Please model this.
Amino acid sequence: MLVKNFMLRQFDGGAVRDTANGKIEYIGFTDVLVEHSFGNYMLKHQTCSDGSLRQADNWKSGWDTKISLDSMVRHVMDLRALHEGLHVYKMRLGDEERTHYSRKPLKALKKDEIDIEETVNAIRFNCGSYLLEHLK
Model:
């Protein structure tokens, strides 16, 4: 008879389970604050510029990785500007979105100011969409 040498865990209540060694520890690899921030970012961006609401998993349908890369690089530049102490503003002019960097806050554009949290979540989203296309 072949006997395998496994490490088992026995719990006080009597339950027995295989070792957790080598299993993905999602709870340790994620953080509730970060996931909540990303969820809020995704909820905010679920509304399209025309006011319609896209499905939460719409992004999984995919697009060319160049789209994700272009967007990611723009957001990395925004993060760099924020890191260097600049103020970053996103403004929609008709069907165009413009980015403006300023050394001082622009009161008239306060509602359009982008912060580090928004920028990092945008980078995270684009990384995820790029990776998903690669994994398909």
In short: Residues 8-43+64-135 form one domain.
